[in-house]
Amino acid sequence: GDLFFALKGETTDGHGFVAEAMKRGAAAAVVSREVENAGGALIRVPDTMKALEGLGRAARRRSKARIASVTGAGNGLGRAHALGLASRGAKVVVNDCGGARDGTGGSLSPAEAVVEEIRKAGGTAMADGADVSNFEQVTAMVERATKEWGSVDIMCANAGILRDKSFGKMEVADFQKVLDVHLVGTFYCCK
User: Fold this and answer.
1) Beta pairing partners, 91
2) Of 12, 31, 92, 109, which has the fewest Cβ atoms less than 10 A away?
3) DSSP β-bridge partners for residue 126
């Protein structure tokens, strides 16, 4: 499928846009203010890489001297987000409590490893092990970044855990922890 973009000012309902793009056979859907309005709510972009490169150039312009905090940045998509932001000039708080996929355990090592990658590439980063489901820890993470760099301009709420059980077999405590990390943690980070 193709990549679809919502055009600037044409849609405020991201979920509706994504659903419509998927109905049209999109492989991916992006809502972007960087795309100029060409007269319709959706445009098809056959050359996906060219479109993404254009967005990348715009992101690089916007992220110069910006401060980003990426949760769940010790591996996977969070790591990719942190490295991408750093490569575009952002100073990055690499947040990861270093737990297993199910959220148990913890170590700052994954976050520290990503910080080391960023520094070796010439970027600036700090590791933080805040548990996003703990408001005091999130507040301390933001205060630390603000004290060191002056602000937090970009928040990428990527942290997540997996309690892989069917609904009927999932314990209430497991469900609550997933909500605490995915939903409440996102709220805390954006607060």
Assistant:
1) 67
2) 12
3) 93
Whether pTM exceeds 0.85: no
7-36: pLDDT as tens digits: 333 344 444 544 555 555 544 444 443 333
Q: What is the 3-state secondary structure (H, E, C) of the chain?
A: CCEEEECCCCCCCHHHHHHHHHHCCCCEEEECCCCCCCCCCEEEECCHHHHHHHHHHHHHHHHCCCEEEEECCCCHHHHHHHHHHHHCCCEEEEECCCCCCCCCCCCCHHHHHHHHHHHHCCCCEEEECCCCCCHHHHHHHHHHHHHHHCCCCEEECCCCCCCCCCCCCCCHHHHHHHHHHHHHHHHHHHC
Closest C-alpha to 157, from 110, 96, 90: 96
pLDDT band at 169 (very low <50, low <70, confident <90, very high): confident
Amino acid identity of 34?
A: E
Q: How many residues does the chain have?
A: 191
What's the CA gap between 8 and 144, in Å, rounded? 35
- Average pLDDT of span 114-120: 97
pLDDT at site 166: 83
